[in-house]
Structures are given as structure tokens and as C-alpha cells.
Design a protein that fits this description.
Layout (H helix, E strand, L loop, with lengths): L1 H18 L9 H18 L11 H25 L6
């Protein structure tokens, strides 16, 4: 489920970045942060998939944020490599 979610959200990022260049700012770091905040800190606890954020120590949040920053940067790197070259 986690990999499917990551692939789907990464695909959405790629589609948005192709249409709206502002999405690419931060080379995927803003994207990774947004996914961490929305999914790990809000959606997962609301759905009962994880404990509420206040029940985890700070380093669990820091590790998860770091992992999502790597995910965002890697997603952006792959998107840039796969995107067709701009004409001109």
C-alpha cells in the first residue's frame, strides 16, 4: 500500500510539474515535506493507521521528514530524467 501510494502521489507530482513549473521549486523538497505533513502527520493518524503525532517522540517525526525529503528529491530527479527535453 505504501509503495502504491508513493507511486500515485509521485505521478501526480510529475503531471503537475509538467503543467505548472512552480511545483518544481525546491527540487522536490517542498513536495516531500507536503507529503510528510499531509500523509504521515495528518491522514495516517486520522485513518487510525498510526498513533497521533503527539504520542511519538520528536526523532520519529524528524526521521520520517528526512525520509520524505529523500523521496521528494528522488521523485523530482527521476521526473527530470524522464521528462522530454524542451524544444528549442
Amino acid at each position: 500500500m505504501h509503495y502504491a501510494f508513493g507511486a500515485a502521489v509521485g505521478g501526480i507530482y510529475g503531471a503537475l510539474a509538467a503543467r505548472t513549473p512552480q511545483v518544481e521549486r525546491g527540487r522536490g523538497l517542498a513536495f516531500g515535506t507536503a507529503v510528510w505533513l499531509a500523509a504521515d502527520e495528518v491522514l495516517d493518524p486520522v485513518l487510525g493507521l498510526t498513533e497521533p503525532p503527539w504520542r511519538n517522540p520528536w526523532y520519529v517525526h524528524a526521521w520520517a521528514l528526512g525520509a520524505h525529503l529523500v523521496y521528494g528529491a528522488t521523485t523530482d530527479l527521476v521526473r527530470r530524467r524522464l521528462a522530454p527535453a524542451a524544444p528549442g
